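Figure 2 data, in text form.
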Amino acid sequence: MRVWMVVGCVCAIGCRGDGAPTFMGGGTSQLPQITGDFDSDSAADDSGTTVTDEDAPVIEDLALSFEEYPGIGDVIAGEITWSDAQDDMEGGRLFYNVTGDSYDNEPFTLDVILDADVSGAANEAYIDSDTGKIIFALAGVDITQTYTFTAVLIQDAALHDSAEVEGEVAP
């Protein structure tokens, strides 16, 4: 069975005591900055499901980009711009399926936490305290391939599901 390494929002990066990034190291917390030009690499489609639950969160934008992270390698970095009337995404979840290269509609579920609570677990996505966006990443990708993200949805802590969106990242 293939071991999937989803670097939930690139949270699996720890730090050495000197602040240099390492993989799952000890020391002070240092979250990688996503610096890619998301608009050039990704396309999002929010024409998927329709939600009538007024308490459901809303995915306003999905941005995907190829990135390289020290100690990890190539990843697909994702940013979700969202809104939620109850503002209870902390403790919620991010769901998506990936197709491309060795992924064949593989499902992923990530816990949504605050960036201050990042532990380095592979199943984490975090809410960036500066931008408010949900940040996540998928490691072990081939940047020469196209990847399609389908059934992307967020679920808040009260178990309200957003509408599904889709996105694609290409070389």
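Caption note: The two ends are 28 Å apart (CA to CA).
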